Automatic annotation (TrEMBL):
Belongs to the peptidase U62 family. Residues 26-90 form the Metalloprotease TldD/E N-terminal domain. One of its GO terms (biological process) is proteolysis. InterPro entries: Metalloprtase-TldD/E_C, Metalloprtase-TldD/E_cen_dom, Metalloprtase-TldD/E_N, PmbA, TldD/PmbA_N, TldD/PmbA_sf. One of its GO terms (molecular function) is metallopeptidase activity. Residues 120-224 form the Metalloprotease TldD/E central domain. This is PmbA protein. GO terms for cellular component: cytosol. It holds the Pfam family PmbA_TldD_2nd. Residues 232-444 form the Metalloprotease TldD/E C-terminal domain.
């Protein structure tokens, strides 16, 4: 696999070719990765995969016209062809008055922050196989588990590099290690219920043991046996942290610069206004050591820094790349995504002050949701409707499993009616504590 230094050199070479052909500006994004994945099922090896890939994307600007071309051929001749093709395409492109590189004076200068994203580990397939087998064995050992959909273990390493004609050049490596198990449990009526558990980390030393992951998958599957359909009506809904993060994902789409500039967001008029319930604060932290979405610079070469998107319920900032910032008459926020658009890093909602048990203690009838199905969010209106499964809450206690129901509301109302518990853990790219949302509409029986 290539090195960060070689990745930078390739990106710089592509930019140099474009400017030599007359481009007013150009940037090049390079990415390379290697990965090994092993899957097992019912105690036997099912598949071993090894993948390697690299590609370079060159974007050129001629005035307000631009074009992007990508190649996986990194030879000198291929880079010459790439630059020539990009220039010819740009000359025929439609003008976009907002297009262009990030302002030169905003680019990251000096050494990027050390985020400890690469553990340098090279994991053998046999090691991954043994981890997957151990996870599946632990899951199948849980009383009530009747079959397995399998377990998998993966190890990967990637390098990202970016160079611009305005003078930025940077690269960084990241590793990822993951382990997952998925099993089935048969209920009294013969129906099978599935559930799973997984864990992903940057450093293999931080990965949970196969036994922990497997047992968690088995316990979850057994708990879901013989689900009922809840009654229909308006009631409180508790979002397990596994699925509550999706509510924050909808927020980031709604406050992205392109959506605001187009006027296609349900939060387009809410900057500086109350969006969430008081006391709720949401952070974006690209500098979290070993974070799953940590990064030293954004997709345009701008420095990134921790920020609060929501403070005490108030919307504090849009997510702006250079193009949307120009269109809105604002400054970019360091949230440019690779290849265009906007992207966040390690998002998290601050923990609340009450336990999950206290959060449900006064609920006479409601739902604890552990699985969501479908993509039922309207980004223009905020209307929200998802298939759901989980558990019934009766008289302050979690009782029977539920399935085949729909939960619905509007995100503007849901955000204002949200209460976080105190159980925040950092396990994913987006992390939230257990969340309670009042007055959602349930379609069940």
């Amino acid at each position: 696999m290539t090195t960060p230094e070689h990745a930078k050199a390739l990106s710089e070479a592509a930019v140099a070719r474009a400017t030599a052909l007359g481009a007013d500006a150009a940037d090049a994004l390079f990415s390379a990765d290697t990965a090994v994945a092993v899957s097992v099922r019912l105690g036997a090896l099912e598949e071993v995969e090894r993948s390697e890939g690299a590609e370079l994307s060159l974007r050129v600007f001629i005035g307000h016209r631009s074009a992007s071309v990508t190649t996986s051929d990194l030879s000198d001749a291929a880079l010459d062809t790439l630059a020539d093709r990009a220039m010819r395409m740009a000359r025929e492109a439609t003008e976009d008055r907002w297009a262009g590189l990030a302002p030169r004076n905003r680019l990251l200068h000096g050494a990027p922050p050390a985020l400890d994203l690469d553990d340098g580990a090279e994991v053998e397939p046999e090691t991954l196989k043994q981890a997957a087998l151990a996870a599946e064995d632990a899951a199948r050992a849980v009383e009530g588990v009747t079959s397995s959909e399998g377990a998998s273990a993966t190890a990967s390493r990637s390098i990202v590099a970016l160079a611009t004609s305005h003078g930025f050049s940077g690269a960084y490596p990241v590793t990822a290690h993951s382990l997952a198990a998925s099993v089935l449990a048969k209920g009294a009526g013969g129906g099978l219920q599935r559930d799973a558990a997984h864990h992903t980390v940057r450093h293999r030393s931080a990965l949970e043991t196969p036994e922990m992951i497997g047992e968690r998958a088995g316990v979850r599957a057994v708990a879901r046996r013989d689900p009922i359909r809840p009654r229909s009506g308006s009631m409180p809904v508790i979002f397990d942290p596994r699925v509550g993060s999706g509510l924050i994902g909808a927020l980031t789409g709604a406050i992205s610069g392109p959506a605001i500039a187009r006027g296609t967001s349900f939060l387009r008029d809410m900057l500086g206004k109350q969006v969430f319930a008081g006391g709720i604060t949401i952070h974006d932290d690209p500098h979290r050591p070993r974070g799953l979405r940590s990064k030293p610079f954004d997709g345009e070469g701008l420095p990134v820094s921790p920020s609060m998107l929501i403070e005490n319920g108030m919307l504090e900032s849009w997510l702006l790349d250079s193009a949307s910032a120009r269109q809105l008459g604002l400054e970019p926020t360091g949230h440019a995504g690779p290849g265009g658009g906007t992207a966040t890093s390690n998002l998290y909602m601050e923990a609340g002050t009450i336990s999950p048990e206290t959060l449900i203690a006064d609920i006479e009838y409601g739902l604890w949701v552990t699985e969501l199905i479908g993509r039922g969010v309207n980004p223009v209106t905020g209307d929200y409707s998802r298939g759901a499964a989980g558990f019934l809450i009766e008289n302050g206690e979690i009782t029977r499993p539920v399935a085949e129901c729909t939960i619905a509301g509007n995100l503007k109302d849901m955000y204002r009616a949200m209460t976080p518990a105190n159980d925040l853990e950092f396990r994913y790219g987006v992390n939230v504590p257990t969340l309670r949302v009042e007055g959602m509409t349930i379609a069940g029986e």
